[in-house]
Amino acid sequence: MNTPTDLSSYIRVLKLASTPSWEEFSQVAKIAGAGILLVGLIGFTIFVFMSFVPGGP
Questions:
Q1: Which residues contact 41 (CB under 8 A, 6 or more apart)?
Q2: Which end of the chain lies in a sparser environment, N or C, as judged by fewer CB atoms within 10 Å?
Q3: 15 near 8, Cβ under 8 Å?
């Protein structure tokens, strides 16, 4: 492992990286929030279904 070469490539990547615009951040936050809500809805649906099955919680 050649540390100076690795370090310079990391620095190059960090220089290319930029802060997202508000629109981009907002879109990513909405998509992530929708994903979290979808997983929660699926979990709640399974819970409700298992409540009606005999021997459920």
A1: none
A2: N
A3: no
Whose tokens are 């951040």? That residue is 25
pLDDT, tens digit, 9 for 90 and up, residues 5-41: 678 888 888 888 888 899 999 999 999 999 999 999 9
Distance CA 2, CA 4 (A): 6
Give the integer Cα–Cα distance in Å for 9 and 17: 13
Distance CA 49, CA 29 (A): 30
CA distance 6 to 30: 35
**pTM of the predicted structure, to 2 decimals:** 0.63
Find, among 35, 32, 15, 13, the residue nearest to 24 by Cα.
32
